[in-house]
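Format notes (please read before filing issues)

Several people have asked whether sequences and structure tokens are stored in separate files. They are not. Every record keeps both together, in the order shown below: the sequence lines, then the token lines. Line labels are part of the format and must not be stripped during preprocessing.
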Amino acid sequence: MRKPVQILLYLVMAVLLGAIVVSYQKYRKAQADYVGLRVEEQATRTRYEEAISEMAAIQDSLDAIVVKGSPRPSSRSSASSPRPAAIGRWPGSP
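Then the structure lines:
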């Protein structure tokens, strides 16, 4: 009776060891995926910031264009252009 119990315990240990190895491999893969995701997120943020900067430059160059026959704007005041009062809210919006 002692021999079958000992064999059963060895089998249980082998299954547990296999489960540990598989779990560790999944952990390492998840960790590598997370690092890749963080790098991709940072690259996306950088591209977004560059796009915003380019749009601001285009807007500045459009503001500098003077249409023939129209009076040249003296200076741009903050009251003449709509600016958000708070994030997500524009003046006059509910």
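For reference, the curators noted about this record: The chain has a mean pLDDT of 83. The first helix runs from residue 2 to 64.
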